[in-house]
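Look over this record as teaching material.
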Amino acid sequence: MMRCVPRRVAGLLARCATVVAALALGLPAPAGAAPGTLHRHVAGFSFRYPAGWSVADKEGLLVLQPPGQRGGQAAPTEMCVLGTDSVAGQGIERPDDPRVVGNVERQVQRLSPALRRVGEVQRLTIPRGRGVLANAATVLDFAATGRAGQSVWARAYVCVVADTSVILFGFGLRENVSARDPALRGMVTTIKADPRAAAPPPAAPPPAAGPAAGPTTPVAAVPAVDLGGDEWGLRARTPAGWRARQQGEVALLGHDTIAGLIIMRPHQEKNAAAVRALMQRGLAEEGIRISLTGVIKPVGKGTLAGDYAGTAQGQAIRARIIGLTSPHGGGAWVFAVTTPSQFGRGLTDAAGALARGVRWIKTSTATTPLMKHFAGTWTRASGGKRTLTLGPDGRFYSYAESVHVGQFKNQYGDWTGSWGASSQSRANGRWRVQGDQRSGVIIINLNDGSTQQYRYQVHVEKGKTYWREYKLNGVHYAKE
């Protein structure tokens, strides 16, 4: 439910807005054996879900599906969804804080405007030592009446972990939500923070003139990690002392003593001029607003850097954005962010070292006439913005904005309520094509290990063939 503009630069924050104001990055630690399946969340916590359930990341939300539910069900009688929201810098001390509860109410209104709070706030105890604020979660109930008189219900389980509000929703017909309650409570009680994220990191000294500003001593015990890969078109190595985790098209880096977060991801901008134009604009979006504070400077071959100031989730931040352009096309963004008082050489030097260490990879270009024909950016004609970029080197990128709406129905097929949510998604990987210019299939292997297929058919209207317009899985796309 978080959106960022300009779209291509702001993708740096799309998967980590809940931690952008945090002072250090907590990375999940290995967990011992316990019932169920362990899921590690990018916001810095983990939880276990029952055996037989499945978890899918649907454009920033985790959809948890119990056994027996059919995938892609058009009218489910229940849904289980987990989302997160940053509460950094707000002084939250308990999960039933009115600000936390108010945010949950707003989220529920987005799911279904008909739902209203009912009953008292309940408390759910969470075992000590898990890094959960107040060792407790708050349970809130919401209700609405469907057209046929059935009771539609939503139950939210809320706890706070490492400056992040974790919200598990169960919603649907009341009898289904009630029957699912023990399983959802069980999941909440397994939520656990990374021990390194359970306490705030030591404060760095304010920036000062000269090289002494900010801590710069490397932590030798932290091994360097390779980032990027063929799908990114680059390889890089973490600076000394920095921990990292790469997930899909985003790499997150944090340090045990240097306050701040570094984010790295590839881009497909045409050249350095396009990179500069995007950096000049800054970011302005719901919850995130930063502007350039000086001038954009060249800091190396094909590399630009600029400093920014603004707010994220209501907290003041300063940031440095480094835009790199690959000699083979595309490039990478490096984004370093922290609070104004802790913005200094320790963070910016590490971001610069990461950028300087990038090694570009020249991937194989399209060699078949069919790949050359389809290489480019394709935009969906209607139904919400969606672009598919089929790189001539076989790389794939996609971006989508969507509004999800649906209805709850009972076992008789009667409408009992509706829900909706807006979101964005990005994905990348590799693509290949089988068929000819008229019809065939585009096969995409995403970085998360999944595979997508788009069956295509050239668009023909009134006897004329439009070779830059195709139906992909029945949806009309046009080539830019």
User: Anything to note?
Assistant: The CA atoms of residues 155 and 323 lie 44 Å apart. The chain has a mean pLDDT of 77. The chain has three domains: 37-197, 212-360, 369-479.
